[in-house]
Amino acid sequence: MSSTKPALPQNDNVAHALAGAGGGILSMVLTYPLVTLSTRAQVESKRAETAFLAAVRQIVAREGFSGLYAGLDSAVFGISVTNFVYYYWYEWTRGFFEAAASRAGRASKKLTTVEAMIAGAIAGSATVILTNPIWVVNTRMTTRKGQIEEEKEALGEKKKQPTTLGTLMALLRDEGPQALFRGVVPALILVINPILQYTLFEQLKNSYERRRKRNVTPAVAFFLGAIGKLFATSITYPYITVKSQMHVADDGVKREGMTQAIRRVIKEEGYAGLYKGIGPKVTQSVLTAAFLFAFKDVLYEQTVKLRGATRRAVKA
What is the 3-state secondary structure (H, E, C) of 17-85? Predict the structure, then answer.
């Protein structure tokens, strides 16, 4: 994006939310096989651990290439809602801080590190509470498809693959509505992931724009987004593992708290157990974030133009 272009208004919360949702969908579709691999690795026992390439071959041989995309529909729905909610509240909070800075006569209206972290905490907490049920269903679908294929091989029977609606209804019938909020505590703690990611991204972006005297391009945003996500996911990965295990816990099993779950994993599998599937997860998270940041600014520009054209057409 060149500095010679007319500056687009950056205070359109809905346009930011739509652009974030669109960028999230595109990036999720591009990287979803890595989601499947990392999620299954997180919830399988140490005895069943499989090397990356062997896991790919195993899934394709047993389930076909579609096995790598188990739960994609719920993931696309989830990421669109997650990103829409996150970006709406993040930009709303950013606008609040920028207005406060303007009233206080601060030289720069750019968010400080503390302000960026507060904005991320508010947006992240709202997002977790509203979208945790979607990710519980997605995790169940991603892992249950593999379990069904194993049962089919063992029994020689045909079993119907789970659908998103079928998984949701079975969950509500067998375990009750509370099952949709399993893992919400580690998910709230994991709000620190986007806080770290977006704070680092914003600071790197601000530094780049100050030095180069121009806005970041999609290519630069791609690399800055990758750096931010690599840093955040590497730090918070043990909580991601625990959250995935809570999502697939059966109703008959005694409920574990987050601390208990972490201690159990360490006792049974050592500290390495907290990092199961980190290779594909970090790769997927970094690529997803990089694509998201690369797509988002372009989508935001087009969304603002489209919304402006729609308003003019309505007035005419």
Answer: HHHHHHHHHHHHHHHHHHHHHHHHHHHCCHHHCCCHHHHHHHHHHHHCHHHHHCCHHHHHHHHHHHHHH
